[in-house]
Amino acid sequence: EMQLVESGGGLVRPGRSLRLSCVVSGFIFDDYAMHWVRQAPGKGLEWVAGIGWNSDNIEYADSVKGRFTISRDNAKNSLFLQMNSLKPEDTALYFCVKSTVTTGPEGWFDSWGQGTLVTVSS
Amino acid sequence: SSELTQPPSVSVSPGQTARITCSGSALTRKYGYWYQQKSGQAPVLVIYEGDKRPAGIPERFSGSFSGTLITLIISGAHVEDEGDYYCYSTNNTGYRMFGGGTRLTVL
Asked: Which residues in chain A have Cβ-Cβ distances shorter than 8 Å to B43?
């Protein structure tokens, strides 16, 4: 069974930083691209960032470009999201998500974690 | 266009057929996908590549697509099908996007 477990969320002041982590099991991590998708309270889903199997094809939503950095450590089956210059509108539940392809925009998301909540507030 | 448009809500009685639409110009070139999200849970894929059903998804879930429109069809909706449904696709530059979501009520 595929498992994705996020951590690192919490309450942070505007302008500060936070690093999210996701540890996976149940599949060969370095065979797949990975993504972060977020959901603001009471709102819809928003794709945030994606990374190919060997850290190629890194892409970001316009809303986080220049502030967030996605990375992965295949040896530790781990995905990360470094979030800098946080804004109140970044407040959301952040999901770690597995793609069905190794890299690139094709494919879809076939397994999701339960999410970690990030709250940006003064 | 980089948008996918869904109706905010759909309501049916148990046993009726629910249809949830998603429109966007990207859908003429790329497949559409559907995710179900129940309250407090992570999304679950219910339809992929327009009309394919993943293992474990009930047969009452199906998908159709034509031009710039994709449709999720739940034939004989159950009360447990209530939740939010999101379409997903990519545009011609590979930008990933979700529709705004449709709240399905079955009562």
From this structure: 45, 95, 109, 112
